[in-house]
Amino acid sequence: MSQHCGYVAIIGAPNAGKSTLVNQLVGTKVSIVSPKVQTTRNRILGIALEGETQIVLVDTPGVFFDPKGRLERSMVHAAWSSVDGADCIALVVDAAKKSCEDSLRILNEIAKHHKKVLLILNKVDLISKDSLLRIAQSLQHPVIAETFMISALSGDGVQEVRTSFAKHMPEGVWLFPDDQISDIPMRMLAAEITREVIFHRLHQELPYSIMVETEQWEEFDNGDVKIDQVIYVQRKSQKGIVLGKGGQQVKILGSLARKQMSEIFECTVHLKLLVKVKEDWMDRPHHYHMLGLDFNVG
């Protein structure tokens, strides 16, 4: 039996559940999830297998139509750039949202790229069947090849999506080893895990414009890993929020992040977190390049 391999661009409005779906398809965390919009900043590749088919999933930043500032413009540009090189496009829609206007605008934009779309209505467990049917009807569009109704969080319906992705992959040799689940470096994944923990604990108090960078990664003979990370914030008041009274908050953040890293990396992790104020980090090309974003967009 011949091998098949190709790329699927996972796109959609912010908080549609794209990263949750990618993690479900891969079978482990490769992309972080949080209640904040625009959590995913760079294009993250997750790799899923279905029989003799390797499916390379491109988890993209959320698409919206009024980006403000350089970082948001760069993220939206990254999302649309993924569409051009994809063999298949999956539009993930939060079916529990009252309005699907953004998703309709995305469909109209995709039509300009002359690509077919697999429409994935997510979070269907949160709404009635009647409401779900109304949403499906409102999103009818000539570019839609198939429609799926799933819960990415529970995994319900995800296998059907995986099977469909596999059918759309062209014949060709696999691009990655069969045991590789992502192309994201472990140093970056560690930084993303810490950022996710911060968002979950402090999303009401902090803007999403924080940055976590893994400065040092040291592996020991016994398999342990020592990781030093810096959390960059833009204001002195934000530093106080992350540190907490007497440094208690950052200790909790470190403990939660360390636990996740130990489980994912399958080793004992020693994590040190430092919090720094860097008001202009969003205007420094280095940070954009580190995230795989184009600094010069817009």
Describe the protein's architecture and organization:
By secondary structure, the chain is of the alpha/beta class. It has 2 domains: 4-167, 3-Layer(aba) Sandwich (Rossmann fold); 186-290, 2-Layer Sandwich (GMP Synthetase, Chain A, domain 3), CATH 3.30.300. Helix content is 35%, strand content 23%. The chain has 9 helices and 9 strands. It has helices at residues 18-26, 69-84, 101-111, 129-138, 158-167, 186-202, 236-243, 248-265, 285-290, and strands at residues 4-11, 44-50, 53-59, 88-94, 117-122, 144-149, 211-219, 225-233, 269-277. The strands form 2 sheets. It has a 6-stranded mixed beta sheet with strand order 2-3-1-4-5-6, sandwiched between helices. Strands 7-8-9 form a 3-stranded mixed beta sheet. Helix 6 (186-202) packs across helix 8. It starts with a strand and ends in an 8-residue tail after the last helix. 39% of the residues are buried.
List keywords for this structure.
2 domains; 298 residues; six-stranded mixed β-sheet; Rossmann fold; 23% strand; three-stranded mixed β-sheet; 35% helix; GMP Synthetase, Chain A, domain 3
